[in-house]
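Intended use. Records like the one below are meant for learning the mapping from a protein sequence to its folded structure. Do not use them to infer anything beyond what is encoded.
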Amino acid sequence: MGAHINDNGEFQSDKYPTCPPGKVPLSVHDRTAQDLLWEYAERRRAVDEEFSDDLARALGVAGFEPPDWFAQIEAVRSALREAIELHVARVGTDVPVLSLPDELVADAFMTSLLERGHVVRREGKAK
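Structure written out for the chain above:
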């Protein structure tokens, strides 16, 4: 077995032996982990927005600056939220049908829409 795999086949940190098996110790101060933690915070947002906000805030305090593409994703999310609010105001229902490329449907915000009962029609790859 690998140096970090225990007898049960689970990951076990050798640097942090008190870390439970299957858990990976990451630090907001570790520059090589910051972008991964940021992405995790965004993916987790649909499940626990407060956790995501707190993790993002801690990363910012540790000196992490989100990548440029993140601002573009946030702009799309904001536009979608606005479109949904307009739809609800006009149609009187909070179950709009959205036609989106697959890669946007996989996004955490889209997942949160689906979990709230919104209908999302997949269009395939974006052009």
